[in-house]
Each structure stands twice: as structure tokens, then as C-alpha cells.
Amino acid sequence: MARHIAVVEDEADLAANSEAAFRRAGFQVSVYSSRPEALKAFRERLPDLAIIDVGLGAEYEGGFDLCRELRSMSATLPIIFLTARDSDFDVVSGLRLGADDYLTKDISQPHMLARVNALFRRLDALASVSGAGDCLQRGPLTLDMDRMAAHWHDQVLDLTVTELWILAALVKHPGHVKSRQQLMDAANVVLDDNTITSHIKRIRKKFQEFDPAFNAIKTAYGMGYRWELS
């Protein structure tokens, strides 16, 4: 069965273009023009992936609200923001709410399809490791990829799936520098360097909420990042 993509976009021409491109690529597509319309449909049946604009009609941040509601329904549903708003604040806000990617509307259709297919490859990878008992212990960190859960000093870290996979890539080989490309490959996503940097900042902040002295994720300037406990 074709995978189902939901496009939540209030600009009719853009929504129609996206729908046509995804249908040509073999996907089933549903289009919604408002947050309430989309939310009603999602409560009946979740799509396999959601592409959401930030501003929806009169709701300036309706897409952010919808992302928050979607993430509460599913921890693993791939969510992409596709919007004209490209400020660092908006990008970080979208990732903080649990989105997997944040794209601007000038992206080409082939590039967009590449990002979508990368997220679907990650879903397949998640399914393949289910039940494998893949658990990592690094000092006070416990990372259970089977259950998609992370604990720091026995406190649950509220990480998104993308953040969990990036963290797993770092902690698997402590001290080894991972480039941004390697982190993308490990997380089965196609992101730009700025988005990877935003994810790293979010991961650090979530650790620091429990442990203000946390500094295990080191920056190797010009190279990438490494996990190193002091």
C-alpha cells in the first residue's frame, strides 16, 4: 500500500503543487487548509508523514500548535515544516516542538522528495531494530534504542526520534568525532548543517534541564561533535 502523506497548507496553489508532486512519486496524499480540519482527520487516522506550514490562515503559529498535538499522538510520526518563515527562532521553535525537519518553500521538488524518502527510510530502520535489544550504557546515560528511550541519572530525557538517533551515533564510540554528514546518515535523515546544529543545541539543553553542568557533547570546530564524559 502506498504511504500516506498529509499536506497542511493554506495556500491553495502551493498545496496543489505539493499534492501533484507526491502523487507522481507514488504516494497517497491528503491536503488540509487549516489546523482544525487537519486535526480532526488526524484524530481519526494518522498519516505516515505530515508536512505542515507554520502559519495557517488566521493562526499565525497554527502549524506549531498542530505539530505539538501530532507529537503527543505519536512519538515516531515524521513531521516536516515547509514554510516561508526561515528565521533561526522559527527553525529552533519547530525542532523544539518535535519536528524532524524544517524547510523553506523555495526548496526544489526533487530535494523535497529526497528529504521525505529519507524519513521513510528511517521508519523502516526503526522497524528493523525493534526487539533487537540495542541498549547503550555510558556512565549515567542509558540509551535504549529498542524502546526509543534515554535516561540521564535515571531521569527520562524527552528526546525526539531524530535527537535519539543523533545521540546514539555520538555515544556509540565515545571520543570519536562525528561529522554533521555522519550524524545525518546515522539518523537516516537528510538535513542541512544548520538543522543538525539546532538539533545538537536542543539535545544539550534537554540534558542541562536535569544537569546544569552537563558538557559531554563536545564541539570539534570545523569537524563535528563527539561524546566525551569528563
From TrEMBL:
<dbReference type="GO" id="GO:0032993">
    <property type="term" value="C:protein-DNA complex"/>
</dbReference>
<dbReference type="InterPro" id="IPR036388">
    <property type="entry name" value="WH-like_DNA-bd_sf"/>
</dbReference>
<keyword id="KW-0597">Phosphoprotein</keyword>
<keyword id="KW-0238">DNA-binding</keyword>
<dbReference type="GO" id="GO:0000976">
    <property type="term" value="F:transcription cis-regulatory region binding"/>
</dbReference>
<dbReference type="Pfam" id="PF00072">
    <property type="entry name" value="Response_reg"/>
</dbReference>
<dbReference type="InterPro" id="IPR001789">
    <property type="entry name" value="Sig_transdc_resp-reg_receiver"/>
</dbReference>
<dbReference type="GO" id="GO:0006355">
    <property type="term" value="P:regulation of DNA-templated transcription"/>
</dbReference>
<keyword id="KW-0804">Transcription</keyword>
<dbReference type="InterPro" id="IPR022305">
    <property type="entry name" value="Response_regulator"/>
</dbReference>
<dbReference type="InterPro" id="IPR001867">
    <property type="entry name" value="OmpR/PhoB-type_DNA-bd"/>
</dbReference>
<dbReference type="InterPro" id="IPR039420">
    <property type="entry name" value="WalR-like"/>
</dbReference>
<feature type="domain" description="OmpR/PhoB-type">
    <location>
        <begin position="133"/>
        <end position="229"/>
    </location>
</feature>
<feature type="domain" description="Response regulatory">
    <location>
        <begin position="4"/>
        <end position="120"/>
    </location>
</feature>
<dbReference type="GO" id="GO:0005829">
    <property type="term" value="C:cytosol"/>
</dbReference>
<dbReference type="GO" id="GO:0000156">
    <property type="term" value="F:phosphorelay response regulator activity"/>
</dbReference>
<keyword id="KW-0902">Two-component regulatory system</keyword>
<feature type="DNA-binding region" description="OmpR/PhoB-type">
    <location>
        <begin position="133"/>
        <end position="229"/>
    </location>
</feature>
<protein>
    <submittedName>
        <fullName>Regulatory protein BvrR</fullName>
    </submittedName>
</protein>
<keyword id="KW-0805">Transcription regulation</keyword>
<dbReference type="Pfam" id="PF00486">
    <property type="entry name" value="Trans_reg_C"/>
</dbReference>
<dbReference type="InterPro" id="IPR011006">
    <property type="entry name" value="CheY-like_superfamily"/>
</dbReference>
<dbReference type="InterPro" id="IPR016032">
    <property type="entry name" value="Sig_transdc_resp-reg_C-effctor"/>
</dbReference>
<feature type="modified residue" description="4-aspartylphosphate">
    <location>
        <position position="53"/>
    </location>
</feature>
